[in-house]
Automatic annotation (TrEMBL), chain A:
Transmembrane segments: 15-36, 43-63, 83-103, 110-128, 134-153, 165-186, 206-226, 247-269, 281-300, 307-325, 331-355, 376-398, 410-431
MF GO annotations: NADH dehydrogenase (ubiquinone) activity; oxidoreductase activity, acting on NAD(P)H, quinone or similar compound as acceptor; quinone binding
Boundaries of every NADH:quinone oxidoreductase/Mrp antiporter transmembrane domain copy: 130-426
Gene Ontology terms: cellular component: endomembrane system; plasma membrane-derived thylakoid membrane
PANTHER family associated with the record: NADH DEHYDROGENASE (PTHR22773)
Subunit composition and interactions: NDH-1 can be composed of about 15 different subunits; different subcomplexes with different compositions have been identified which probably have different functions.
Protein name (record): NAD(P)H-quinone oxidoreductase subunit 2
Job description of the protein: NDH-1 shuttles electrons from NAD(P)H, via FMN and iron-sulfur (Fe-S) centers, to quinones in the respiratory chain. The immediate electron acceptor for the enzyme in this species is believed to be plastoquinone. Couples the redox reaction to proton translocation (for every two electrons transferred, four hydrogen ions are translocated across the cytoplasmic membrane), and thus conserves the redox energy in a proton gradient. NDH-1 shuttles electrons from an unknown electron donor, via FMN and iron-sulfur (Fe-S) centers, to quinones in the respiratory and/or the photosynthetic chain. The immediate electron acceptor for the enzyme in this species is believed to be plastoquinone. Couples the redox reaction to proton translocation, and thus conserves the redox energy in a proton gradient. Cyanobacterial NDH-1 also plays a role in inorganic carbon-concentration.
Compartments reported by the entry: Cellular thylakoid membrane; Endomembrane system; Membrane
Catalytic activity line of the entry: a plastoquinone + NADPH + (n+1) H(+)(in) = a plastoquinol + NADP(+) + n H(+)(out); a plastoquinone + NADH + (n+1) H(+)(in) = a plastoquinol + NAD(+) + n H(+)(out)
Superkingdom per UniProt: Bacteria
Source organism of the structure: Myxacorys almedinensis A
BP GO annotations: ATP synthesis coupled electron transport; photosynthesis, light reaction
UniProtKB/TrEMBL annotation, chain B:
Lineage: Bacteria, Bacillati, Cyanobacteriota, Cyanophyceae, Leptolyngbyales
Gene it is expressed from: ndhD
Enzyme class: translocase
Pfam families noted in UniProt: Proton_antipo_M (PF00361)
Membrane topology: Multi-pass membrane protein
Function comment: NDH-1 shuttles electrons from NAD(P)H, via FMN and iron-sulfur (Fe-S) centers, to quinones in the respiratory chain. The immediate electron acceptor for the enzyme in this species is believed to be plastoquinone. Couples the redox reaction to proton translocation (for every two electrons transferred, four hydrogen ions are translocated across the cytoplasmic membrane), and thus conserves the redox energy in a proton gradient.
Family: Belongs to the complex I subunit 4 family.
Record's catalysed reaction(s): a plastoquinone + NADH + (n+1) H(+)(in) = a plastoquinol + NAD(+) + n H(+)(out); a plastoquinone + NADPH + (n+1) H(+)(in) = a plastoquinol + NADP(+) + n H(+)(out)
Protein name: NAD(P)H-quinone oxidoreductase chain 4
Length: 545, 542
């Protein structure tokens, strides 16, 4: 069988964007080998960025693809996946922009860094479209393992090593749990691996209310929650964020998180519609915990990266509101928020990298009086942080507004009110940093700022940082006011995704139909449930007595 | 609605904002270009607003005018729609006047002039935006845009405890504004049609419990801003610590945003709940008047004394809003305008005194009259205006509120009597604290700070600013129609709108629980309109 017909049969056209990233990756590796480190560092990053942007362009042409399902159901390149893949590719491109100078200054090899980052991107992009358990797991692991490598990339820095080890240990166990959940799904569905057929098989096998399905759900959520850093699966976040190289943190907080959300939507909506009430309940709990804990603990942080770690936990909580709602607007508001989050969070990280490169510290108190020395950096960081806090008219305000709007529309009043309260709390710690930079008088300047070197944009790798900084600043300030195209994009991505439309249409009537015949089973299950509960509680009471 | 060819209001809102974006790139030495630039923009915007109102606005029309509406984010139903009517038009002019004057008052800002004028221009936009917005989300957005500039303005150019004051301000206001957004969402999604347009929201028929809930939420949000008694504690700190130009805007315009929003939303959009809440507002107004006046008397810090005096004066606005009469409503708006002129003038003069003596502690002052005769004269005029001397705008506003409340037929005579009596007590305390302030500052022996200081009297620029504020104060005082005529039709319309809701409520309660509404008349609740207007029915039931 010749290659072309095979490609047609597999509908390989849907993964052209990933193929572009893959080719870029190979180019970077090979050219690094052939030309040598010093010479290749001059232009490999730009090749990588060009490749990622080309991939975004290719994604643009995937928008209206007639048949998104490819590789015999392994991969689903629907509109939702296109948006998520775009977010991940863009976040990788921005990460490369900000990492060039950082990696050069840390004395490590740039090409390898980019290679690993592109691998992670590839994993994330595949994960966004994976429609089958094996593909999900393989791409999840591609993303995770490259992320572990990235966190430990500055290998002479003990904190980076610590972060990598922590991330690896927790990540490995969480993916093991996820794998176990997936295997349960496989078993319950009688050997199905395609997400879309799993729920049907489970329903037809009469296991719609089985405990096994609930356990599979809990395990799958544990894996996802680890990726999106939702409380209580967040413990790795602050340490890893603090120890890892900052560009990596930027990627983890945006690209990796977006991939996690893409997985969450696809897996929960297509594989677990039978237990949608349960997963909505679990995710609601996680969202509440994330919003409260993330935003409250952030108040006490003294390190900028830890602050952003907790803030990103809180932000994940906000995004989860959209996931729980199960409405068109809910999903679109998620997508919209993630797009906006891409700009503002990466902008904030670019600023932190610039500051760290100049001063070698990321303590919040060291930012004191920065306005006098570097107004541009102060402006950019202030705008990005205030946008994260949801201050109008910046992009983050519109993101939150849409989430809360969707929440109110769906009747999730307590969640919306909690979201509002916690975002007021978040304003407090974001504005604390702004205050530190802007308000402090010359005599209150920190030592780092006193010795702040004048900005030399001509150094190698500084120009890309400047480009990243300015574009993030512009995007964050204007994406809100001129948000119409982004809103349209987010809404269309949901409306054009058959999987979501099917789920949304289905979530009202047919589930009830499926429920009806299983009531007797449900009853019997409840009995078994009770008996198992007793069995569990018995030893406890024995201990007490 | 009259459609105009030129988007006047959008221009008024966006001009300072767009102009502010050029401040970072202005070529500038020692902030001199920047201040001329900012002042020029301020004057231009003010002139444009006066021109737009005088040429395009019909004072005899109670509808919204100069209306514009553009689709902004249709996916969520947000429009950019602006319009002005009798309530917002005077406040737009006031905001332009006070902000421009405060930029002139800040002429000698040495520290970070670019940032200062940038923030001032952003505030300028936001203020006008709040008064013009006709879309709830747009209103909320403008309301919030104000937040960060004020925070930074207080925390950089403020007094000793400025950081504390600024943080308190932002937390109070941000928490308060949660209620605005929740109310906006709740009202928007109520019923079949999703809309954020204020006019359409006002036409929706809400159920009474819902309306009461939303009203309470909005009352908290705007009560923080106005401020209303238990929510006021940020104000003395913020106004006391901010520098004089910022205090001018805070007291002159920002407080009015609360009063304006109360009228615009709580009364116009939720008239039925207002019928229930009005007695509460009246009581809160009394508490504000008396508490503010007493607390003001206890202050030894000049600006804190003025800040509490603002709280006291805002109580009259509440009383006027609660009165259900045309006169009372008219008085409430006039009181806002008059306080919007008097308070900035007082804060500005306090700034002059601070500039010369470097203290705000009245114990260290004294005998200033000899060294600063013109300041003394100006200060006295302003204080007289503030204590409502006849012939000044304060008198007209408070008198109208009193008359309005007394003639209101929505309350029982006892309730009205008690309220008016207590408000009159506040009226007596006001001269006490203002005159004692004058005595401590200007009469007697020269205080510590005065002896040491090289004291110069007002400069021409400062005299000009004070005169700009004093002229309208006296003008309105002598010929109140000057101001009232511009908005009278609108306040009449609002008062009748609010009044109309009262019998409806009475009817409802009457129908649902006849026992309650007659027998157990709440002591100072709305005396149901029904029994009074319809004595036959009353007799029949009895």
């Amino acid at each position: 069988m010749d290659f072309a017909s095979l490609a047609v049969q597999l509908n390989a056209g849907t993964i052209v964007p990933e193929a572009i990233v893959l080719i870029t990756l190979m180019t970077v590796v090979v050219s690094d080998l052939i030309i040598g480190r010093q010479a290749s560092a001059q232009w490999t990053p730009y090749i990588a960025i060009a490749g990622l942007l080309a991939s975004v362009v290719a994604l643009f042409y995937q928008w209206d693809v007639a048949n998104p399902i490819s590789f015999i159901g392994e991969f689903n390149g629907d509109a939702l996946s296109v948006v998520f893949r775009g977010i991940i590719a863009l976040s990788a491109a921005t990460t490369i922009l900000m990492s060039i100078r950082y990696v050069i200054q840390s004395g490590t090899s740039l090409a390898e860094f980019i290679t690993i980052l592109l691998t992670a991107t590839l994993g994330g992009m595949f994960l966004s479209g994976s429609d089958e358990l094996v593909a999900v797991y393989v791409s999840l692991e591609t993303l995770s393992i490259s992320s572990y490598l990235l966190t430990g990339y500055t290998k002479r820095d003990p904190r980076s090593n610590e972060a990598a080890l922590k991330y690896l240990l927790i990540g490995a166990s969480s993916s093991a749990i996820f794998l176990y959940g997936a295997s349960l799904l496989y078993g319950l569905s009688g050997g199905e691996t395609r997400l879309s057929t799993i729920s049907a098989s489970i329903a037809s096998a009469g296991l719609a209310q089985s405990i096994g399905l609930v356990i599979a759900l809990v395990f799958a959520i544990a894996g996802i929650a680890f990726k999106i850093a939702a409380v209580p699966f967040h413990q790795w976040t602050p340490d890893v964020y603090e120890g890892s190289p900052t560009p990596v943190v930027a990627f983890l907080s945006v690209g990796s998180k977006a991939a996690g959300f893409a997985l969450a939507i696809r897996l929960l909506v297509t594989a677990f519609p039978l237990v949608s009430e349960q997963w909505q309940l679990v995710m609601t709990t996680l969202a509440i915990l994330s919003m409260v804990l993330g935003n409250v603990v952030a108040l006490a942080q003294t390190s900028m990266k830890r602050l952003l770690a907790y803030s990103s936990i809180g932000q994940a909580g906000f995004v989860m509101i959209g996931l729980i709602l199960g409405t068109d607007a809910g999903y679109s508001s998620m997508v919209f928020y993630l797009m906006v989050y891409l700009f503002m969070n990466l902008g904030a990280f670019t600023c932190i990298i610039l500051f760290t490169l100049r001063t070698g510290t990321d303590q919040i108190s060291e930012y004191a009086g920065l306005y006098q020395k570097d107004p541009l950096l102060t402006l950019a960081l202030s705008v990005c942080l205030l946008s994260l806090g949801g201050i109008p008219p910046l992009a983050g305000f519109f993101g939150k507004l849409y989430l809360f709007w969707a929440g109110w529309q769906a009747g999730a009043y307590p969640l919306v009110i909690l979201g509002l309260v916690t975002s007021v709390i978040s304003i407090y710690y974001y504005i604390r940093v702004v205050k530190m930079m802007v308000v402090k008088e010359p005599q209150e300047m920190s030592d780092s700022v006193k010795n702040y070197p004048p900005t030399d944009w001509t150094l190698p790798g500084m120009r890309p940082l400047q480009v990243g900084l300015v574009s993030a600043l512009i995007a964050t300030s204007l994406a809100g006011i001129f948000s119409n195209p982004l809103f349209t994009l987010a809404n269309d991505s949901v409306l054009k995704t058959p999987m979501l439309q099917q789920a949304l249409g289905r979530s009202k009537a047919p589930i009830a139909k499926q429920m009806a015949p299983t009531i007797s089973q449900q009853l019997s299950l409840q009995i078994t449930e009770v008996s198992t509960k007793k069995a569990v509680s018995l030893p406890k009471s024995m201990v007490h007595s | 609605m009259v459609s105009t060819s030129f988007p006047w209001l959008t221009t008024l809102i966006l001009l300072p904002l767009v102009a502010s974006l050029f401040i970072p790139v202005l070529p500038d030495k020692q902030g001199k270009t920047v201040r001329w630039y900012a002042l020029g923009i301020g004057l231009l915007d003010f002139a444009l607003s006066v021109y737009a109102v005088s040429s395009q606005y019909n004072f005899q029309n109670s509808d919204f005018q100069l209306a514009e509406s553009y689709v902004w984010v249709p996916q969520v139903g947000i429009n950019w729609s602006v319009a002005i009517d009798g309530i917002s038009m005077p406040l737009v002019i006031l905001a332009g006047l006070v902000t421009t004057l405060s930029m002139l008052a800040a002429w000698q800002v040495k520290e970070k002039p670019r940032l200062f004028y940038f923030l001032m221009l952003v505030m300028y936009s936001a203020q006008i935006g709040v008064f013009c917005a006709q879309d709830m989300i747009q209103f909320f957005l403008m309301w919030e845009v104000e937040l960060v500039p004020v925070y930074i303005l207080i925390s950089i150019w403020g007094g000793q405890k400025r950081l504390y004051a600024a943080t308190k301000f932002i937390l109070y206001t941000a928490i308060g504004s949660i209620f605005i957004l929740v109310a906006a969402l709740a009202m928007a999604f109520y019923g079949d049609v999703m809309t954020f347009n204020m006019h359409e929201l006002g036409l929706k028929q809400y159920s009474l419990p819902f309306e009461l809930l939303v009203y309470a939420g909005l009352l908290i949000a705007y009560g923080v801003k106005l401020p209303i008694f238990p929510l006021h504690t940020w104000l003395p700190d913020a106004h006391g610590e901010a520098s004089a130009p910022v205090s001018m805007i805070l007291a002159g315009v920002l407080l009015k945003m609360g009063g304006y929003a109360l009228i615009r939303m709580n009364i116009e959009m939720l008239p039925h709940a207002h019928a229930y809440f009005a007695p509460v507002l009246a009581i809160l107004g009394i508490v504000n008047i008396i508490y503010g006046a007493l607390a003001s008397f206890a202050q030894r810090n000049l600006k804190r004394r003025m800040a509490y005096s603002s709280i006291s004066h805002m109580g009259f606005v509440l009383l006027g809003i609660a009165s259900f009469t045309e006169l009372g409503m008219n008085g409430a708006v006039l009181q806002m305008l008059s306080h919007g002129l008097i308070a900035p003038a007082l804060f500005f003069l306090a700034g002059i005194v601070y500039d010369r003596t470097h203290t705000l502690d009245m114990d260290d002052m004294g005998g200033l009259a000899k060294k600063m005769p013109t300041t003394f004269a100006l200060f006295t005029i302003c204080s007289m205006a503030s204590l409502a001397l006849p012939g000044m705008s304060g008198f007209v506003g408070e008198l109208a509120v009193f008359l309005g409340f007394t003639t209101s037929d929505a309350y029982t005579a006892t309730f009205k009597g008690v309220v008016v009596l207590l408000a009159a007590v506040g009226l007596i305390i006001t001269p006490i604290y203002l005159l004692s302030m004058l005595r401590d500052m200007f009469y007697g022996k020269e205080g510590k700070a005065v002896v040491q200081a090289v004291v110069l009297d007002v400069k021409p620029r400062e005299f000009f600013i004070a005169a700009c504020l004093l002229l309208p104060i006296i003008g309105i005082g002598l010929y109140p129609k000057l101001a009232t005529e511009t908005y009278d039709v609108k306040t009449v319309a609002i008062a009748s709108h609010a009044r109309n809701a009262v019998p409806v409520v009475a009817n409802q309660t009457f129908k649902d629980q006849p026992q309650f509404s007659i027998a157990e008349q709440p002591p100072f609740g709305i005396a149901p309109k029904m029994p009074i207007a319809n004595p036959e029915l009353l007799g029949m039931v009895r």
